[in-house]
Amino acid sequence: MFYELKTGNLKLDDVYLKEVTLNTEDGEVVAHDTYFLSACYDELLKELGFARVETSEFPTYDDDTQEVEEVKELDEVNNIYKISYRVVPKSLESLKELKAEEINAKRDEAINSGVSFKGKVFQSAERDRNLLSAAISLYSLNNNLPPNFVWIAKDNTQVPMNLEDLIELASLMALSVNENTLKARALKNRIEAAANTDELALIVWE
Q1: Can you tell me whether residue 94 is helix, strand or coil?
Q2: Beta-carbon-side half-sphere exposure of residue 158 (alpha carbons within 13 Å)
Q3: Which residues fall within 8 angstroms of residue 158, CB to CB, at 6 or more apart?
Q4: pLDDT tens across 92-131, in order?
Q5: The pTM is what?
Q6: 9 burial level (CB within 10 Å; 0-12, 13-18, 19+)
Q7: H helices of the chain, where?
Q8: How far is CA 86 from the centre of its chain?
Q9: Which residue in 46, 53, 68, 183 has a CA-CA distance of 20 to 30 Å to 130?
């Protein structure tokens, strides 16, 4: 890999075609000289407009609290473009964003974990809530359910239900969504107000 001095771009291949003008009997003709950059000595490489590239080993770091910055520097004396890395603490704003994502994930997990009703746990993900709402809307039109109507619990058992049961189950799911959403909002307000990483670390979903 080589660094192009004029453009600041990295050149990944080894072949460089230098445009040259040849004087012939028919006039000037544009041609190309071929150079293998890895075979060029330092002065020729610089004359062609390139520097060699030295890359440091990528460091290990803690992804939760640290990030890696790339440091690029041109050593003009030795005609070497150096790429190195340094590990730095994540900014407070970055840590706040990660903490908010963690809270959102915990909120969704709590909402989707199911609700207890009639001694059983029923699935409560968005698709389950939508299906339940659709069933209530449909059967409320004539205020009746099909004979021997059942709703499937999380353990795949069939639980007999009437329309009032379905409405109560839907109410429990809606309550769970509301409570967990409000809980998440309160925690995210604390995240936004945190003045340092110590305050941020105290904010957890319990």
Answers
A1: helix
A2: 4
A3: 150, 151, 152
A4: 999 999 999 999 999 999 999 999 999 999 999 999 999 9
A5: 0.68
A6: exposed
A7: 42-47, 92-112, 126-140, 163-193, 197-201
A8: 22
A9: 183
